[in-house]
């Protein structure tokens, strides 16, 4: 499938020549292939539509980075949008509540609720010790965890959790034969409170498909136990049905997070996107095996490249962008070396800065610039100011930009008028440029190598 999308996109774009901005036709051609890839990854159809509608305006008109093809560029934009829709970054469990903090596990039968309960219980009770380095946040504190099975429907379901508890060293609520789910919940809460447990994990019964009886049962359990986290457990293989499952649970309960299981299999994980889109809640954890330590935090970027099957292209485009940034930085450094940092360079720096979000970003790259940095950030250079500075430079003639020394009173007046600012704003910018030049020369004397390293130091 990987070669599939890759090759199809290649075919689409082999016919397209030239660089520059992505045209509507480029984008639509690529998005048709992306659509197929998403469906192949089992993303639910309405979510695919929503996704394509969301990414299309982002892609049209976007610049194609030098040395990548338009197709590769679309893939990168699609990938970034996907990562964003998947939540962007790792989402932590929220266990900030008065103990015992309740985690309610819900989902269809066989989705992996009981296994995931034990995995989470195990992780939380381990604390930072022996923990996979990836876990942080709420997993970095050792907690006293108890688990209770409320599954009175499947024979031996409570037994299953008890055995997992013994294997993981996580205590389970003693089983009382014939007790009903709500009564077990009450007893679990009392026991956890009395015995000073930090976290109580409630493992519920599932069904092969959504039904009212099941929904009412979990809703009642939820109302009684007031969970801080309600984790919807879903198999990564869940295909088009993911939307219905997520909707059904989310309508009756406040789902706070999703646990995606069997990510170790060959499902491409489209369910992650479907569930996230329907509930608006992040995937918090993934199950990657049957063993109780096969639990990982969810990394949106990893699942995105799995869904698209285009990880290689994404890193290729990222590398290309980095290379260009590095080349630009080196060019700039060379100019500084020759004392040639002119207004055109300042202009392109200002534009970069707007992308990077502030002058302190650039200053931070320069050694020995701490003073200037402090002064600049005190001046709180905002987006609007950067735009005004750009306008000032744009109002200069090419000759003035190359040689700002010639800008005297009458030229200043003309530039101020041309850019809609006060003469003092023009003065400020000229002074800023002069200061930068001075500073760069000083740095230059300190040693070219150190400067180059710091300027191009993104490798
Ligand atoms: P429940 O009915 O929702 O409680 O589901 P279970 O926790 O009993 O899991 C059903 C089956 O899926 C068991 O055989 C588990 O070992 C298996 N399982 C659960 N999570 C994972 C996972 O992340 N990877 C794999 N390979 N198997 C899993
Ligand atoms: Mg179970």
UniProtKB/TrEMBL annotation:
InterPro entries: AAA+_ATPase (IPR003593), P-loop_NTPase (IPR027417), Signal_recog_part_SRP54_M_sf (IPR036891), Signal_recog_particl_SRP54_hlx (IPR013822), Signal_recog_particle_SRP54_M (IPR004125), SRP (IPR004780), SRP54 (IPR022941), SRP54_GTPase_dom (IPR000897). PROSITE patterns: SRP54. It catalyses: GTP + H2O = GDP + phosphate + H(+). It holds the Pfam family SRP54_N. Its EC number is 3.6.5.4. GTP binds at residues 107-114, 203-207, 261-264. It is found in: Cell inner membrane; Cytoplasm. GO terms for molecular function: 7S RNA binding; GTP binding; GTPase activity. One of its GO terms (cellular component) is signal recognition particle. Its main location: membrane. GO terms for biological process: SRP-dependent cotranslational protein targeting to membrane. Keywords: Cytoplasm, GTP-binding, Hydrolase, Nucleotide-binding, Ribonucleoprotein, RNA-binding, Signal recognition particle. Composed of three domains: the N-terminal N domain, which is responsible for interactions with the ribosome, the central G domain, which binds GTP, and the C-terminal M domain, which binds the RNA and the signal sequence of the RNC. Part of the signal recognition particle protein translocation system, which is composed of SRP and FtsY. SRP is a ribonucleoprotein composed of Ffh and a 4.5S RNA molecule. Involved in targeting and insertion of nascent membrane proteins into the cytoplasmic membrane. Binds to the hydrophobic signal sequence of the ribosome-nascent chain (RNC) as it emerges from the ribosomes. The SRP-RNC complex is then targeted to the cytoplasmic membrane where it interacts with the SRP receptor FtsY. Interaction with FtsY leads to the transfer of the RNC complex to the Sec translocase for insertion into the membrane, the hydrolysis of GTP by both Ffh and FtsY, and the dissociation of the SRP-FtsY complex into the individual components. Belongs to the GTP-binding SRP family. SRP54 subfamily. This is Signal recognition particle protein. It comes from Reyranella soli. The lineage of its organism: Bacteria, Pseudomonadati, Pseudomonadota, Alphaproteobacteria, Hyphomicrobiales. The gene is ffh.
